[in-house]
Amino acid sequence: MMLDAWLQAQVAKLPQPLGGKLERELAKRWVALALALLALLSTIPIASVIGWGTTLLAALGLAALVALAIVGWSEYCTALVVVLGAIVLPWLALISFNFALGWLLRPLGLGLRASLVVAGIVFAAAAFGYLTVWKERRVAALVVALVLAPANVVGLPLLIASGKHESAVVASQPYVSKLDLAIVVPGGATAPVASAASAGPSRGWDVRWSVARAGDATSAWLLLDSSDPDAALAAASGAGAPLPGAPAWRADADRVVLLDVDGTPPAFEDPAALPSLPGRDGEVARWLRIAGQLAPGAQVAALLQTTDRARLDAWRRRLDPLGGSVASVQRLGSRSLADAAQLLAVQAPGASEELALATRYRPILLFDRGERRPSPFDVDDFFASGRVSLCHDDQIGGGDNCEAVLSASALTSGPTHLRIRPARRGDPVVASAIYVHPTTRTEGARTLLFLDYWWYLDDNPARVGHGATCGVGLSMPGITCFDHPSDWEGMTIVLDMDGDVATPIAVQYAQHKEVVRYAWAELQARWARWRTDPRSFLSRQVRRHLDMLDDAADRPVAFVGAGTHATYARPCTGPCHQTLDRTTENRYGGESAWTFDDTASCVEVACVRPLPTRHGGRDAALWNAYAGVWGDRHCILKGAYCTAELSPSAPSTQVRYRDPERITGWVDADEHAHRCGGDGVACPALPPAQAR
Question: Which of 152, 467, 612, 643 makes a 20 to 30 Å CA pair with 74?
Answer without folding.
Answer: 152
